[in-house]
């Protein structure tokens, strides 16, 4: 089912969990792409270069179909999956959570690791302020100069956020609109065209977020 809104965090947060001498430092970030995720991971590995493990999980997109969990040398599914589980349990997306572990000399066992990574991730996410954001679709309108008043009324009626405008032989307006109202916008443009107004909806598309 198409998602019209999604939940993410406003800003980076941190958490901490300690168990038998091991320290689990957790970091949660709002992210928009795998390139941004890579930069955060590289920065943490550089800053905490002496840590034994940098385990993480991320989720991208309003449909939550893009995700990854990484154990970074810990037993399979003992670190990344518990972190990802915390993201899912809060119904979040466009989020990266990294847990940096400093080994304390006493092995925790797989069950202990699962609990520690889960609790560290939970602590970081509990500090976060969660936003609910609408999914927006990209739209491009092409219109005659004479149709400008009608187009501007449409922009206001459908709360189109203008990102770029071009003026040559005609006019081109690029922007975004709430995905939920995109069909109604297309219907409005069709109606205007039927009434002889020189406007066309060239393309639409739903960005990932």
Explain the layout of strands and helices:
Blueprint: E1 5-9, E2 13-19, E3 22-30, H1 34-47, E4 53-60, E5 66-70, H2 80-89, E6 95-102, H3 109-126, E7 130-134, E8 136-143, H4 148-157, E9 161-167, E10 171-178, H5 182-194, E11 199-205
What does this structure look like?
With 209 residues, the protein is an alpha+beta fold. It folds into 2 domains: 128 residues, Ribosomal Protein S5, domain 2; 71 residues, ACT domain (Alpha-Beta Plaits), CATH 3.30.70. Helix content is 31%, strand content 37%. It is built from 5 helices and 11 strands. The protein has a 5-stranded antiparallel sheet with strand order 2-3-6-4-5, with helices on both faces. The chain has a 4-stranded antiparallel sheet with strand order 9-10-8-11, with helices on one face. 35% of the residues are buried. Pfam families: Impact_N. InterPro entries: Impact (IPR023582), Impact_N (IPR001498), Impact_N_sf (IPR036956), Ribosomal_Su5_D2-typ_SF (IPR020568), UPF0029_Impact_CS (IPR020569).
What is the gist of this entry?
With 209 residues, the protein is an alpha+beta fold.
Strand content: 35-45%
CATH superfamily of the largest domain: Impact, N-terminal domain
- How far apart are the first and last residues' alpha carbons, in Å? 16 Å
Q: Mean pLDDT, rounded to whole units?
A: 93
């Amino acid at each position: 089912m198409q998602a019209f809104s999604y939940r993410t965090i406003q800003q980076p947060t941190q958490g901490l969990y300690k168990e038998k001498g091991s320290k689990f430092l957790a970091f949660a970030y709002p992210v928009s792409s795998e390139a941004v995720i890579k930069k955060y991971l590289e920065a943490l590995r550089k800053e905490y270069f002496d840590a034994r493990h940098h385990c993480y999980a991320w989720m991208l997109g309003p449909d939550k179909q893009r995700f990854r969990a990484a154990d970074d040398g810990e037993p399979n599914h003992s670190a990344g999956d518990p972190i990802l589980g915390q993201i899912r349990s809060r119904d979040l997306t466009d989020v990266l959570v990294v847990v940096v572990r400093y080994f304390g000399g006493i092995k925790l066992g797989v069950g202990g690791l699962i609990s520690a990574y889960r609790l560290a991730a939970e602590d970081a996410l509990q500090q976060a302020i969660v936003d609910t954001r609408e999914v927006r679709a990209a739209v491009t309108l092409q219109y005659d100069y004479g149709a400008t008043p009608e187009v501007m009324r449409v922009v206001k009626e459908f709360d189109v956020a203008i990102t770029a405008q071009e003026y040559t032989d005609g006019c081109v307006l690029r922007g975004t609109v709430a995905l939920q109202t995109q069909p109604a916008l297309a219907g409005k443009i069709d109606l205007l065209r039927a009434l002889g107004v020189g406007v066309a909806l060239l393309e639409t598309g739903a960005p990932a977020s």
